[in-house]
Amino acid sequence: MQPKTKAAPAPPPPLPAQRTQCPPAATVITDARDARDARDARAKQVLKEAVDAVVNSFAKHTQGYGRVNVVEALQEFWQMKQARGADLRNGALVIYESVPSSCQPYVCYVTLPGGSCFGSFQNCPTKAEARRSAAKIALMNSVFNEHPSRRISDDFIEKAVTEARASFKGGQGDPLEADNPNTGIGAFRFMLESNKGRTMLEFQELMTVFQLLHWNGSLKAMRERQCSRQEVVAHYSNRALDDDMRSQMALDWIAREQEQTGALGRELGLAERELEAARLAGRELRFPKEKKDILMLAHTQLSGSLSS
């Protein structure tokens, strides 16, 4: 007689289904902020490493040993370019501008011959360190600017015009517009061809002038007065971005503020945030910095007229 086989115990009843709970909104926001902060920190570290690598390489190739004085090296770099025939309309002087502050971090901007502007991209405990930080990022861009791809040539113009046409009207614009100086694309080609042989950093001030004219609404006003784009480009191509131009644009913003209260403050806040983000990212700053300076000038003039 065979022993009876024990029956297997019945499986336990299934647990009641539980609802999956989504994490609280505050947790999601915090996680996203932490991830963004981590990306920003990594990007800043990569930027610092790239700048240091260029500066160290520059030191090795120019002196062969020791640390390079980036402020002196930057000035000597542009003096060398001028001596070799670069078309620097306002000379080879590198201009520094420290932002007034009674405490750290200190901020410094540097404007290169040709009009490009860069700023200190690190948290600088001293004004001297802020100047060095600005000089570092400017030196790196000056060195990279020597690459043939940064020089305005026939090939560069064709590529730039093609890209501009592709982004205009979704790429559906008339290809013949590029040869018509009275169209936006045609005016862009005219500007590039007028500066053939120069580098993009040497071309920056002229580009900034037209960016400001567009931002300020001046180009639209000129079109309404039946001015052709060719006439506008020809006029402003020979005009420097000076205090008179800034004062005129400041007056335009004062008029806007008088028509719509708060317009000046909103635009100034936007310009300050744009400039700060671009500075910390190590980007070229001339356009956002000029916008802020013009709006600050308008704010100061308006405040003075109201208090008098």
TrEMBL record:
GO cellular component: cytoplasm
Residues in coiled coil: none
Region annotation (Disordered) ranges: 1-22
GO biological process: autophagosome maturation
Pfam families: LIX1 (PF14954)
Similarity comment: Belongs to the LIX1 family.
Protein name stated in the entry: Protein limb expression 1 homolog isoform X2
Organism: Thrips palmi
Organism classification: Eukaryota, Metazoa, Ecdysozoa, Arthropoda, Hexapoda
